Each structure stands twice: as structure tokens, then as C-alpha cells.
């Protein structure tokens, strides 16, 4: 299993969030002109659907979504990789763009179902490598080491990119940090640490999800975070949806 989340939504509602393109666009990936085409390709054109069992299998890949009804209006959504003995913890600690991307996206799905069922998001995607081998990973550069040790649901506060972030620890894995952000309309920050690979500097990527910001507020938000990121990780690299498969 790559990742699973328990959501405060019925199994039918969670399943619909995997089938309706408009709803998929509110949790999968990030805002981009290519997103509608990617959703059609991944979730409709190259899938095998078993609606009664609520399973969605990707053609040509060993991955499938499963939705399980656990009662009390809740469900478990999991992404399973067939034919592997690796545990969820194993996958979480393995850096691969595709694997880490799916972990992020399933967490974004859980967040949307739990807290923003009918809301429209605006997102910012940041990605890159540092230009020196001595650079810190993104989570350390943002001062999140102590926060990463806290239990999910714990309150946090930190200064970053010229603003004070506060909210709850949503999830933490070996390479990812997920934080709700009150000031982004109860938004979500997902930060992914990319370790040094083949002698390259560290780096990573982030998806910043906001709700309810007007154009001026979002433009200012985007400028602040682009500046923070590019001064630390200026070597741009492809997004995780374009990364290698494992």
C-alpha cells in the first residue's frame, strides 16, 4: 500500500471524488493548463472501473484506488501497489517523484473531503534543487524540524516567506510535511523534501492550497512564496506528475 487516509465522508461521496473530473480537479495535482487533460488521461482514458466494489485500477500500472466504507459516515481511501512487499512506511521513505506525488495527492483528497467538500481551491506549485551541496532541505529551511516531531492534530506556528503560518499538523512522513494554514482560508501546505541523489544538491517541491483569497491577495501570496523558494532552490526541475515511474 502506498498511502491511505480515513475521511469524514461516505464511501459513495469519496468514490464520486475519484470519478467526477470537476471534483478531481480540486485535489489532484495543482492548478495548470494541462490539468484537465491529465485528469482525463489518468482517471478515465486509462482505467478499469469496478463501481460496485469502488476500485479504480490504472491500465499499464500496478496501482489501484480502493474506497472502503467503515461506517458512521466515514470511509478509507487507499492507493495500493500490487505485487510489492513494501509497507506504507517503506514507500513513504522512498524518494521517487511519482510515488511521492501520489502520497501528496491522496492527502490533498482527504483534506478536501474533510474540510472543503464544495469549495474551489487556488494553488501554487514550487519545485527545484539548491545550488550548493551545503543547502538545507525545504522542511529544515522553513524551520519545521520541531513541528515535524509533533503529533497530527497538534497546533503549530512558524514564520516563513514574510508571513506567520499557523494551524494544525495534518500529516508527516519521512519526506513530507502537511500543515493546515489558517491564513490561507483554512488552506494546506504540503512540503516534500528531496534528498541528495547522485551527488546533486537537496531540493524538493511544494503544493500550497488556498481558499477564498481574492486576486490581489493571491498575487501577493504568490510573489512572496516564489521569492522565498527561488532564492533557496533556484534549479528548476519537472513536476512530480512528469517524473519517472517506479
From TrEMBL:
* Family annotation (InterPro entries): START-like_dom_sf
The record's section on SUPFAM superfamilies has:
Bet v1-like
Protein's name according to its UniProt entry: ATPase
Q: Which organism is it from?
A: Caulobacter mirabilis
